[in-house]
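BACKBONE GEOMETRY TOKENS:
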Amino acid sequence: MMVEPLIVHPASCKDCHKCLRECGVGAIGFKDNQVWIIEDKCIYCGNCIKTCPQGAKEALFEKKKVESFL
């Protein structure tokens, strides 16, 4: 099972489409009034996280997970 490095919090997403416009590689999909990360296209630049005014996107880094176990 692969852990997604970027996640979208659906309840926080307000359909402003800023992340869609800022993603230079087209790695954000939109359907049923929600966005999602297209992992095969994502280069993990963080533009979607930086531009989201609602904070609906979050990066998951393995370093944080390891640190939590220590």
Observations:
- The chain has a mean pLDDT of 78.
